[in-house]
Amino acid sequence: MARVVNYIVQNVVGAKVKKYRLEQRMSQKELAERLETYAVYICRGSISRIENHERTVTDYELRAIADALKVSINDLYEDDKTIPDKLKIMI
Predict the structure, then answer these.
(1) Chain-centre distance of CA 53, in angstroms?
(2) Model confidence, pTM
(3) What are the tens digits of pLDDT across the range 26-48?
């Protein structure tokens, strides 16, 4: 089932997912493959859309992403300094 949300910004974790992925010198494809070991199937293109705030993230996907990146779920949430201006309007 497609996840449809009528917001410009679909998630608040995308920038941090990208930050931690790049810190570990991991490609989007490698992250997608690592997520498969948690039985979470997110393709490389969807990883890109998550990082660009264009795709929602379910709770179980968020948990697997945090585990795959070896960070806590809280680490993935953006603080006020990293939230894009377009998102601040919605919060």
Answers:
(1) 8
(2) 0.81
(3) 999 999 999 999 999 999 999 99
User: From residue 76, how far is each of 1, 40, 65 by CA, in Å?
Assistant: 25, 17, 9
CA-to-CA distance for 20 and 26, rounded, in angstroms? Answer: 9
Residue 20, classed as helix, strand or coil, is helix
Residue type at 63 in one-letter notation: R
CB 65 within 8 A of CB 17: yes
Which candidate, 7, 8, 10, places its Cα nearest to that of 61?
Answer: 10
Q: Which letter does DSSP use for residue 60 in this model?
A: H
Query: Does residue 73 contact residue 63 with C-beta atoms inside 8 Å?
Result: yes
Q: What is the DSSP code string of 22-40?
A: HHTT--HHHHHHHHHTTT-
Tokens read off for 16? 């941090």
d(CA 1, CA 31): 23
